[in-house]
Amino acid sequence: MAAADRSILPDTVQAINYDIGLFDLELGGAFSFQGIVKIQVKIKSATKSITLNAHHLTIHEGEISGQKTTDVSYDEKSQRVTLVFPEEISASSDAVLSIRYAGTMNNSMAGFYRSKYKPTVTPVESVPMDGEHHVMFSTQFESSDARRAIPCFDEPNLKATFDVSIEIPEDQIALSNMPEKEVKQARAGLKTVVFERTPVMSTYLLAWAFGDFEYVEGFTQREYQGKQLPCRVYTTKGLKEQGRFALENCHQVVDYFSEIFKIDYPLPKMDLLAVHEFSHGAMENWGLVTYRTTAVLFDEKQSDAKYKNRVAYVVAHELAHQWFGNLVTMDWWSELWLNEGFATWVGWLAVDHLYPDHEVWSQFVTEAVQTAQNLDSLRASHPIEVPVRDALEVEQIFDAISYLKGSSVIRMLSGHLGVDTFLGGVSAYLKKHAYGNATTNDLWAALSKASGKDVNVFMDPWIRKIGFPVLTVAEEPGQIGVRQSRFLQTGDVKGEEDETLWWVPLGLKTDPKATGAATKALTIKEDTLRDVDETFYKLNSDQVGFYRTNYPPARLELLGKERHKLSVEDKIGLVADAAALAVAGQGTTAGFLVLVEKFSDEKNKAVWSQIISSLGNIRSIFADNETLANGLKAFTLRLVTPATEEIGWDFAPNENFLTGQMRALLISTAGNAGHAKTIAEAKRRFQAYQRGDRSAVHPSLRLAVFQIVVREGGKTAYEAVLNEYTSTTSIDGKETCLLALGKVQTADLVKSFLDFQFSDKVALQDVHTGSVSLAANSKVRNALWQYIKENWDPISKKLSASSVVMDRYLKTCLSKFASHEMEKEIAAFFKDKDTKGYDRGLVQVSDTVQANANYKERDEALVLEWLKTHDYRRKLASRYPVAVISEQVIHYDLIMTKTIPEVDVHVAFARLNVSAQSNMD
Question: Which residues are annotated binding-site positions for Zn(2+)?
Answer without folding.
Answer: 317, 321, 340
